Structures are given as C-alpha cells and as structure tokens.
Amino acid sequence: xxxxxxxxxxxNGQLGSEIRGLSGSYPEYTFLFTDxxxxxxxxEKAVNTFFDEHQPVFCINCAAxxxxxxxEDPAERPLVDALNSDAAGxxxxxxxxxxxxxxxxxxxxxxxxxNTVPYKExxxxxxxxxxxxxxxxxEKQAAAHTDSIIIRTAWVYSPYGKNFVKTMLQLxxxxxxxxxxxxxxxxxxxxxxxxxxxxxxxxxxKWHPGIYHYTNEGKINWYEFALAIKEITGAACEVKAIxxxxxxxxxxxPAWSVLDKSKxxxxxxxxxxxWRNSLEACISKIRLY
Length: 289
What we know:
By secondary structure, the protein is α/β, with parallel strands linked by helices. The chain has nine helices and twelve strands. The longest helix is centred in the N-terminal third of the chain and has 22 residues, at 77-98. The two termini are 37 Å apart.
C-alpha cells in the first residue's frame, strides 16, 4: 500500500518539531520533514523539483522568518520577503499543480493590534511591522494559487527553539528580578496543541479552504503569562509589571492579539485547551529534558 505523503517545511522549528512528535500516531501517512538543508523553499525551481519527485498530497508550511525585530533591518528585507511571502507562493503554486492540499501558518501580526474584542478572520488586516507585512503578503500568495487553509496563530511556545516560556525559565533561574510588559494582551499557543489541530484537519477527510484562527483559550498579558510561569515552577524571582513604553523594540508589537477561534471550532470540531493547562503540560515536558 502506498502511503499518502505529507511535506512539512520548517520542520526543525517549534511547530514542525511538534508535528514530527505526532507523526508516529498517523501511520497512514509518510511524512517528508524538511528544513532549509533539505529543501530551500525560497528557490522556486527546487520546490518544483521536490514536488515532481515526491508527489506530496499535503504541504504544511511551518517555515518563516520569525525574528520580528531583526526583520526591521533593511538589510534583512530581501530574506524576510523571500521566506514569508515568496516561498508561500512557490509552495502554493506547486500544490495547485500537483492537486495537493496546502496548509499555511500565519500570525496575529497581520492586524494592527488596536482592537478591544477578539479578531475574526474577516476583520481588516493592517500590519504595523515588516514581519506582519510580509506574513500578510504570504497569506495573499498562498490564497491566490490554491484552495489553501491559512491558520493564524499567536504567542507560540514549546520545548523547542527560542520562545517566551523558555526565556522566562532561564531568566527566573539566573536573576532576582525581571520586568515584563503588562499592556499587551493575547493568548499563548502551545505548539503541540496547534500541531494536533493541524493533523486533525489533515486526517478529517474534509477540506474547507479559507483563513482560520487558532490559539489556546483565554486572554492574558505578558506579565500575567510570566507570573503563571513563576507560579508553576516555584521560582523565587520577582516579576515586575512595566508598560510597553519602558521596553522599546525596533518592531511595533500589537497591543491586542486576542483571536476569535469560533470558526475553526465549528468547521472542524476542534476542542481548544485552556492556556494555563497547556502551559503546565509544556513546562512538565521541558523539565523531562
């Protein structure tokens, strides 16, 4: 029996690593895990050759340029555009040519962050950073070439790579006090939960193209997120709340990143864990390492 193939790009990142961890639960598929060493997605010819050779039926694009502040450097712009915008177009075109389904992962940064209610998929996009602009361009390219599913997420963390949770764990072990902004609101996303949701969509046998939002449930600010990490770990470090104005960054952060998840919940019957439960699960996993 020939197994259906799933191409996962950016497979060494947070989300790709979590999908790799789940792959054993889906023996009906053959997973093709690639990172830049195995497949340069910013090279259209390389993308087409890979698709011709391997014939995947699904492509899950987890690859992105995610260094939000570094992306503001004009010298970085060509690479940011290539990874976040052009690559999405190359993959989407290849999927369309091979009749493969395309799942593209995007971000809350496509919004300006000025809302006070959770963002719906239909809300106006107005990115305020280079990262957000290039990710929005990637969404447009993904949607232009195939009946893609685009999943916007926010505040992603996991035991892998660089993220807020791992940074806080390290700082709380090495410093008596840390300061964390308390006027930016959103919902954390445990990459393992997002990976499970993506695989649930793949395995559902149903394909409803369009944009979806996914994070864990709840609404907090970064200070509250740090406090929860302190509580769960029992760290002695003092956590101080500060306004964004006291922590300037090259890229403007959205003050509001709460996403409305009702569409993905209704269309694909996704059960979404609470952010606190998922944080506890992730920290338990990190401690096992």
